[in-house]
Specification:
Thioredoxin_domain, PRX-like1, about 200 residues, antioxidant activity, alpha+beta, 5 helices, Thioredoxin-like_sf, oxidoreductase activity
Length: about 200
């Protein structure tokens, strides 16, 4: 297990990369599929990492609590080296209720993680829906190479103040960030790097 902290690659208020990824329900998702939400909590995560596992309950609770914010997990790990992060294992975790996000997506090429500058699990990105026209199917880029100005980056950083798996959080930064976005306000948080296992690159 290699510990890594997230790095700021996309500036706040900048458009974020679009994607086209398969979900555990066998459906294909892009940002266009979430335009009904005012915010998306896009979290690069996985099954096997203890740092990611420690945030499962928090992410499940957020998905249940907020009707206007979608929780979307993206697993970019190399499943050949880490079978616990295979697409089939992702489906099992959804089916048995361990993961109850609005969508759990497989970044098989790892192109979306690279486009966002994600480096660890979890690496959370909170996106704001700007209410602009979504890209057409012909404009979408496979692998997250293009920007979609329907969504911009509102916050990138840690979910709470518990940086290690065995710590109990006392402050939930992501709740403050989501509440700000839903209220139409700027997120009043400095960049606070998330901490987790490094993404397992091919």
């Amino acid at each position: 297990m290699v510990m890594k902290e997230s790095e700021a690659e996309i500036e706040r208020d900048d458009p974020v990369p679009n994607f086209e990824l398969r979900g555990t329900d066998e459906e294909t998702y892009t940002l266009d599929d979430f335009t009904e939400y005012e915010a998306i909590l896009l979290v690069f995560t996985c099954n096997h990492c203890p740092y990611a596992q420690a945030k499962l309950d928090l992410l499940n609770d957020i998905a249940e609590e907020y009707d206007e914010a979608a929780v979307v997990g993206v697993n970019s790990n190399d499943a050949d080296e880490y079978p616990d992060d295979s697409f089939e294992a992702m489906q099992e975790w959804v089916e048995d209720g361990r993961i109850r996000y609005d969508a759990y997506l497989h970044d098989e090429t790892q192109g979306v993680a690279k486009a966002y500058g994600a480096v660890c699990t979890p690496d959370p990105f909170l996106l704001r829906n700007e209410g602009k026209k979504a890209q057409s199917a012909s404009e979408r880029s496979n692998g997250g190479e293009s920007r979609d100005d329907t969504f911009t980056l509102a916050y990138h950083g840690r979910l709470d103040d518990a940086l290690n798996p065995d710590e109990v959080p006392t402050e939930f930064h992501i709740h403050d960030a989501i509440e700000s976005v839903l209220a139409g306000e700027d997120v009043d948080l400095e960049f606070l790097p998330s901490r987790g296992c490094s993404i397992k690159w091919k």
